[in-house]
């Protein structure tokens, strides 16, 4: 039996994972390959899912909301993937939340009901070239985040340093040096808007499948064992603790969803978001401007706006560390009177 390759897309909040996923899906379409997607988002609202579906309403997709794969029960992840398998995809992409450790999902893929049907092809980690070097100092007080961002680099099979349009050549070299220290083996690509030759990442999925039938299951098992061993060497204690935690108590990372009662000027939204620095890590939303609906993306210091065809409700999701929900909601209400 041919196994289905799984690509795990990891990387911190706002690094460019969804941008990469859109490209990969496009490549699949061009190649006539059928992809399936598992999106995992913290917070109750699934923004990335909507962004992907906006382009292709037929997309085979499952979503795990309001929890991260690390903390969700393994059976939940397995159930979602089982549903995807019913559509007989050629390839599966799993986009992790920005705060997930990739290794946890790898564990789920080896659940008994899945192991015979799929294998982990690659963990691809996307890094925000502009901010990655600052993570250690920004998250100094949140060791869990420092550890997660490190793990995302360490366990990657392939690293994409994205947003090079925003950094200098020398900054780029510095980033490369730091990454190479943490992961000496995996190739590193530098990109803008996650534009990497998809063939490099995917190869020809159909060819991969043919090769697989020659290799049989060996490759999949070897790959997994290597990772498993590697991971547990480092963080056995952490993983163990983690398994017993409830989703909500996972970390100091919290999300707040805000609604709009009226149109709002982008400068007003931007000013509001800036207020919550440095606790605010990321914000996204569909916001009502004078000339229609816009997709807003806020990453560290920057706010991006692009016109959207989104027809549903308008909202803004904030993801932060120890964001004071009451205070944020109070301040938001003042803007929305
Ligand atoms: N300047 C610049 N912006 C980029 C680049 N890549 C992505 N962006 C923008 O950065 C924002 C976040 O990109 P996403 O692809 O949504 O990032 P993500 O990793 O999926 O974010 P999360 O879902 O929060 O984890 C979007 O507004 C992108 O258009 C890049 O190379 N350069």
Automatic annotation (TrEMBL):
Catalytic activity: GTP + H2O = GDP + phosphate + H(+)
This protein's UniProt keywords: Chaperone, Hydrolase, Nucleotide-binding
Composition skew (Basic residues), residue ranges: 219-235
Composition skew (Basic and acidic residues), residue ranges: 236-247
Membrane keyword on record: no
Segments for region (Disordered): 219-247
UniProt keyword Hydrolase present: yes
Domain CobW C-terminal residues, every copy: 253-336
Regions crossing the membrane: none
Family: Belongs to the SIMIBI class G3E GTPase family. ZNG1 subfamily.
Protein name: G3E family GTPase
Species assigned in the record: Evansella vedderi
